[in-house]
Design brief:
homodimer, alpha/beta, TIM Barrel, 2 domains, nine-stranded parallel β-sheet
Chain lengths: ~350, ~350
């Protein structure tokens, strides 16, 4: 299911292949976010041209609209959005905590009100798995409680017990499905809790393991410290996923520590806001260089050079900074589109570089 | 420059080829609107795939942003937006009347305040031509006064005199350029004024002639009546352009009367609003059938059929009505994009059908 092909000489980085029901994925990799069943503004044809190997769908959003039932007729999420490569879905838990109103965590699951219409919904671990199976996800995440930062020790301790219990129930619910189920290690910034969480999950034997509860506002050093002691707790021969980390330097540090999978809205959301990633320099794991260009800035008004002369995306191959700026200033969504394409390509190129370096 | 290849047996419709500096255009044709230097949300590559032969840019918008100067460095509007086929630009007059504030019509030109920042601007016939030459337009329209409907006889009479005078000045301003300059017949709904306007313009000898001042709110029968007596006043061997008519049945009626060129925001604007043109049936000039589908409607929720089974566009070839509806309901601009592509293709197919019928 997961084969490591090469290990880096100087760091814990590794390169490999993750086999899924709908295709192989070169690791380490980054997943663009198809929040509600589409990477905003981008077609599946374009995603493939950009080198995307897999996209991530959000269970919370898809549960509310269009709802699980529809996916049975639509041929799953892949059939619905016409994406013929692998899909990972999250459990829905993260958005319940960030978007859901009046949420109550109970042993059986999490109760919340939809942010759209206030409808009261109970999401159990079994519900989450059933939804993800209906989506036809290649990689399914267990329902977990993503503790906030900062988080008191006792809260974090109870939280990992709940998360492990839910993980066990998710594993039962998945049954004989070909989908790969991933456990999520929690435990906030407490080493003994991370240890306990990892140990209990590994004993349950998942297809892969995520590090959750990071990239939630903790200081950078803290995050690296947690990664430093958590990643080695995870089985060498299983894929490792750092949820929510999206800054290029954050991804680099995690890859160096042996993480294989990433997702984030950064490239797509920043693209829509006209913040464009250019000038990638990445020759070793010692240093990554790049710039974020604000395309609406007056200084690009008469700049007839490409956005990034080293980029092979459609945007850079065809248009000037002056034209992109004009599209943003005149609020034509072609600008958001071209910016999103470029940013996704930047992330794909960055991951390609990392795989080459290893 | 313009060659008529075939005339319809039963109507005044004709099929031909309009040669421009940047390519030949099969007539009759429809021009998608690239208001501010882009067909909203659509790339030039897609426009070509859809069968667009030419796009229309709005001088008023481009004058204000990014301004004429920039186009000299950008390689004209075609270089700026990377469109290598022909471009027609309007004179700017129409938007001065619809968007500009505090406009004053003077013999030398029209004075107005920008709708963006209130800046006072004087647009003379010479300014309009200079701007359109800076854009590198293949077809340049004279500055005219588009009289509103209803319009008193005396107002309309003075207006055509001004329009003819401005047309004469535009012709002088164009000089030896390879761009084709079109005159615009005005005269509201008064046959003798239309006659006078056409006569005076034809005497000035333009590369083509537009019928202006229609599709401004007059009853349908009135419009056809005006077309009935105005089109025969225009030279047989020059292209004829009905400005602003965009309803399929309106285009059909005009083509039957010998009009060759059309433009309208209808396919693109309606696409963005989720109003989609489907079910084209067009076997003769006697009748055109189609439907406008509101894609957000609940009834499409579980409709897994293509938008239009007879359409060859990317949208119809790949996605279901259920998915398109989902994109509109969740406000992903991929929905607007796919809808716009489809509607443009509908108009292109409709014009292709008309050319085949002739």
């Amino acid at each position: 299911m997961f084969t490591i092909e090469k290990k880096d000489d100087k760091t814990s980085a590794r390169r490999g292949i993750l086999k899924t029901a709908h295709g192989d994925i070169q690791t380490p990799f980054f997943m663009p976010i198809a929040t509600k069943g589409a990477v905003k503004g981008v077609t599946p044809t374009e995603l493939k041209e950009l080198g995307a190997q897999i996209v991530l769908g959000n269970t919370y959003h898809l549960l509310l609209r269009p709802g699980t039932e529809l996916f049975k007729q639509a041929g799953g999420l892949r059939g619905f959005m016409k994406w013929d490569k692998p899909i990972l879905t999250d459990s829905g838990g993260y958005q319940v905590f960030s978007l859901g109103k009046m949420r109550k965590i109970k042993p059986e699951g999490v109760e919340f009100r939809s942010h759209l219409d206030g409808q009261k919904i109970m999401l159990t671990p079994e519900d989450s798995v059933r939804a993800q199976l209906a989506f036809g996800s290649d990689i399914i995440m267990v329902l977990d409680e993503c503790a906030p930062y900062p988080c008191e020790y006792n809260y974090a301790k109870e939280s990992i017990e709940l998360t492990t219990d839910w993980a066990r129930r998710c594993k039962q619910a998945v049954g004989e499905s070909k989908s790969l189920l991933f456990g999520i290690v929690q435990g906030s910034v407490y080493e003994d809790l991370r240890q306990k969480s990892a140990q209990d999950l590994v004993a349950l034997d998942f297809a892969g393991y995520a590090v959750g509860g990071l990239a939630v506002g903790e200081p950078e050093e803290k995050k690296l410290e947690v990664l430093d002691y958590t990643v080695p707790l995870l089985p060498e021969d299983k894929p490792r996923y750092l949820m929510g980390e999206g800054r290029p330097e954050g991804i680099l540090e995690a890859v160096k520590r042996g993480v294989d999978m990433f997702d984030c809205v950064i490239p797509t959301r920043n693209g829509r806001h006209g913040h464009l990633y250019v000038g990638l320099k990445l020759d070793s794991f010692d240093k990554i260089e790049y710039k974020v260009l604000r395309i609406s800035n007056e200084k690009h008004r008469e700049d007839f050079t490409p956005l990034d002369k080293d980029c092979d995306c459609y945007t850079c191959q065809n248009f000037t900074r002056a034209y992109l700026r004009h599209l943003f200033v005149t609020e034509d969504y072609l600008g958001q589109r071209l910016a999103t394409l470029h940013n996704i390509r930047f992330y794909m190129r960055m991951m390609e570089r990392m795989r080459e370096i290893i």
